[in-house]
Structure to design on (249 residues):
C-alpha cells in the first residue's frame, strides 16, 4: 500500500450528510488540502441537483483545497481528478483496459458508470476560489438502475465487474497518492499534459454522441476537448464548443 502524500490532510467520518457539505463547513479552518471520507452519507448529491445513492462499502470523499488561480483554471481540476481516479482503479485491479473517462467527469468500467465527480467552488471576496471535489465510486455495489435517469449508462460496481475487493480507506490512500501526482503535473506544466492524458483514456472519442445542455440537444462527433476542457462536437451545423452538458452514447 502506498504512503499518504505529503502536504495533504485527511478526515474519516462514520456518517455525514454529504462530504461536500462537510468540506464547506470545514474549508475556512483547513490550511492544507484535505480529504474528507465518509462511510455513510445521508444526503449525498450528484451533478445537476440529482441525488447520489451510496450503498454501504462504496467510496465517498471530498478533497477540499484553496488553489490561488482564476475560476476557469480551478475548474480544470475535474480532469485532474478523473485521471487520478483512473490510476487508482488501475492500481486496484492491475488492469487499464476496462476503464474509460466520460466527459465531463465520469469513470466507466466495461461501459457502465462506476464513478462520478462533482466540483463545487465559489470565489471569495479575497479573490481565492476554494474548491471541493466530491468523488463517489461504486466499490462493492451499484445503485439500482431505477435510480438513474432514462438514457443514462447503467451503474456498475468494481467488485462485481473485476473481483477486486477494496475498502474505502484503502481506495482513499491510492486515490490521494495518484491525485497528488496529477495535481503536481497540472500546477507545474499546466493543462496540456492533463488534457493529452485525459484524451488518451476518453470514451467514444471520434464517435457519435449526444450532448444535452440546459437549452439544447446536439448530436455529432466527439472530436476532442479544447484547452479550456470544453467538449468539441462536430455537428451538421458546424463545430460547437460545449462548456457543460450531459452526454449520452
Ligand atoms: O453525479 C455525479 O456523477 C457526481 C456524483 C458525486 C458523488 C460524490 S460522493 C462524495 C461527494 N459527496 C456528495 O454529496 N457528492 C459527492
Amino acid at each position: 500500500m502506498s504512503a499518504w502524500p505529503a502536504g495533504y490532510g485527511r478526515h474519516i467520518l462514520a456518517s455525514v450528510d454529504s462530504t461536500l457539505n462537510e468540506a464547506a463547513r470545514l474549508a475556512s479552518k483547513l490550511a492544507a488540502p484535505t480529504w474528507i471520507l465518509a462511510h455513510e452519507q445521508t444526503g449525498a448529491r450528484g451533478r445537476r441537483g440529482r441525488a447520489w445513492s451510496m450503498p454501504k462499502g462504496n467510496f465517498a470523499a471530498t478533497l477540499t483545497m484553496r488553489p490561488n488561480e482564476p475560476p476557469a483554471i480551478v475548474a480544470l481540476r475535474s480532469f485532474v481528478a478523473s485521471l487520478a481516479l483512473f490510476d487508482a482503479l488501475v492500481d486496484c485491479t492491475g488492469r487499464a483496459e476496462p476503464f474509460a473517462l466520460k466527459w465531463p467527469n465520469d469513470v466507466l468500467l466495461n461501459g457502465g458508470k462506476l464513478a462520478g465527480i462533482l466540483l463545487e467552488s465559489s470565489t471569495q471576496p479575497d479573490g481565492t476560489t476554494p474548491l471541493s471535489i466530491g468523488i463517489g465510486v461504486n466499490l462493492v455495489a451499484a445503485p439500482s438502475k431505477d435510480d438513474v435517469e432514462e438514457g443514462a449508462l447503467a451503474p456498475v460496481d468494481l467488485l462485481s465487474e473485476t473481483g477486486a475487493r477494496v475498502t474505502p480507506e484503502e481506495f482513499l490512500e491510492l486515490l490521494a497518492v495518484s491525485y497528488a501526482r496529477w495535481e503536481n503535473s497540472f500546477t507545474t506544466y499546466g493543462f496540456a499534459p492533463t488534457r493529452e492524458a485525459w484524451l488518451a483514456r476518453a470514451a467514444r472519442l471520434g464517435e457519435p454522441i449526444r450532448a444535452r445542455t440546459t437549452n439544447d440537444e446536439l448530436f455529432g462527433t466527439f472530436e476532442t476537448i479544447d484547452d479550456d476542457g470544453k467538449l468539441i462536437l462536430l455537428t451538421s451545423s458546424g463545430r460547437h464548443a460545449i462548456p457543460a452538458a450531459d452526454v449520452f452514447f
User: Anything to note?
Assistant: The chain has a mean pLDDT of 94. The chain has two domains: 9-200, 208-248. The pocket of biotin is lined by residues 18-20, 41, 44-47, 50, 52, 60-62, 106, 116-118, 134-136 (CB under 6 Å). The first strand starts at residue 9 and ends at 13.
